[in-house]
Amino acid sequence: MTVLVVSGTGTEIGKTVVTAAVAALARAAGRTVAVLKPAQTGVAPGEHGDVAEVLRLAGDDVTGAELARFPEPLAPNTAARRAGMTAVRPAEVAEAAEKLAAEHDLVLVEGAGGLLVRLDDEGGTLADVARLLGAPVLVVTPAGLGTLNMAALTGEALRARGIACAGVVVGSWPAEPDLASRCNLADLPESSGSPLVGLVPEGAGQLSGADFRAAAPGWLGPELGGDWSL
């Protein structure tokens, strides 16, 4: 694949760390990689954002790009409107991703929140970006209660739009998983309609870049360049 869109079933569930892990494995395989963040919210100018975190973990030889930054931690369209700034439209995101794809082997587009969070006031979403690009979506989900419903809804939304799913990754697998988390490993593929292709342990984002890159192959399956297996 040339472009892979990374979305979540919600927010603060490990999308950035999963994006960094995919980027790290691609770089280890000798591929050139770019990471595109269409809309960074909740971060002031000059502060460390998601793209900077991906580069810290995956390596500074990854190309990072951010189209817009809005100060309040809200949905991109709401954050843009409240800041009096121009929202990012799906066509702009697709154009930026295509330009990066012309110069890189893999472009990772990391969304904000879930698949249908609005980018602009016209209703444009990350799903529209994936559709314009003809790109598959990697779905990041939490481990515990509630994740089956969220994964099912996301999978249904993708299928309704004719968008391929590249699989499901648990973005923060607990050190001591409870019963619901353990059962969800078996149930997530059926609920989402897509295979489970990785478990990233909680705290992975706190590792040094070198330790993160060394451990990443054990978190993601062969579909994403790793050797993880359920």
Automatic annotation (TrEMBL):
Active site residues per record: K37
Alphabetic keyword roster: ATP-binding, Biotin biosynthesis, Cytoplasm, Ligase, Magnesium, Metal-binding, Nucleotide-binding
EC number(s) reported in the record: 6.3.3.3
Xref: InterPro entries: DTB_synth_BioD (IPR004472), P-loop_NTPase (IPR027417)
Residues that coordinate or bind Mg(2+): T16, D50, E110
Catalytic activity from the UniProt record: (7R,8S)-7,8-diammoniononanoate + CO2 + ATP = (4R,5S)-dethiobiotin + ADP + phosphate + 3 H(+)
Subcellular location: Cytoplasm
Gene Ontology MF term list: dethiobiotin synthase activity
Pfam family, one: AAA_26
Pathway: Cofactor biosynthesis; biotin biosynthesis; biotin from 7,8-diaminononanoate: step 1/2
Chief location: cytoplasm
SUPFAM superfamilies, per the entry: P-loop containing nucleoside triphosphate hydrolases
Cofactors named for this entry: Mg(2+)
Annotated residues for binding of substrate: T41
Superkingdom: Bacteria
UniProt binding sites for ATP: E12, I13, G14, K15, T16, V17, D50, E110, G111, A112, G113, G171, S172, E202
Protein family (similarity comment): Belongs to the dethiobiotin synthetase family.
Subunit annotation: Homodimer.
Role played: Catalyzes a mechanistically unusual reaction, the ATP-dependent insertion of CO2 between the N7 and N8 nitrogen atoms of 7,8-diaminopelargonic acid (DAPA, also called 7,8-diammoniononanoate) to form a ureido ring.
Designated name of the protein: ATP-dependent dethiobiotin synthetase BioD
Lineage: Bacteria, Bacillati, Actinomycetota, Actinomycetes, Kitasatosporales
Gene from which this protein is expressed: bioD
